[in-house]
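Render this sequence as a predicted structure.
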Amino acid sequence: MRKLGLLAGQMAAFTVICGLAWSVANGQEADHLRVIVFGAHPDDCEIRCGGVGILWAERGDFVKFVSTTNGDIGHWGMAGGALANRRNAEVQAAAGVLGVTSEVLDIHDGELMPTLENRKIFTRLIREWEADIVIGHRPNDYHPDHRYTGVLMQDSAYMVAVPFFCPDVAPLNKNPIFLYSYDRFQKPNPFQADIVVSIDRVIDKKVEALALLESQFVEGGATGSADTSPKTPEQREAKREQVKEGFKRRAASVADDCRAKLIELYGEEAGKQVKYAEAFEICEYGRRPSKEEILKLFPIK
């Protein structure tokens, strides 16, 4: 059992399938990237990669966000299937704004483990998407679901090209580029900004998508309460605006933290002017791109 809320995601999946069919028919699929992003909960991909996801999608690349747990304990006032369905619906709505497709795995929130079964799920997902780029958490993180998402992603590196591992799905012809998304954890090793992308042009669209994840950011998620949750439509709308501004500040802090790499990739004048960014570290278990390839593959202008 892998998917949750299949019906809720059918329209997004249908749109992607139609796009793929059109691209193949017109000989264009080879010209576009295929990117898969793993986030531990139904909000992590959107937080960490929502901006670059928009930019990739706008230029015709195919982007898939995978939530590796269903988020079914991530709220102070509700849980179980009702919450899992709600969070799936939220990320599907966000995917419509971002221009990506979204899938939620049917694994309980807080219970993801780095098992062989789950390694095979990750491997199959990467192969089925025919990914050029794979993104996930770093293995050192405060949340066990984050850590094990990172472990499972990096354990799939190399294995995705091994023919007799998960032989029911064709192996990839080459190992994708594997990346870790940004965090500030220092032990046992701090994040290294190898790739930083300006999201200035799409920041408003990104935060609009994030504000749709109301169970988490408007109502407070697992650590909220009835006292702090909005009581009226006016309070809810005010909270949505606070959420948007908060995520703008977060993206601005990424740009400031990674300013040297922005200047390296964009040039001194443009790099200094970037206000909002998303950053990634190259996992050495995947293919190692050159600077020239980074500038081509990533929406860096």
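Summary. The radius of gyration is 19 Å. Residues 205 and 211 are 10 Å apart (CA to CA).
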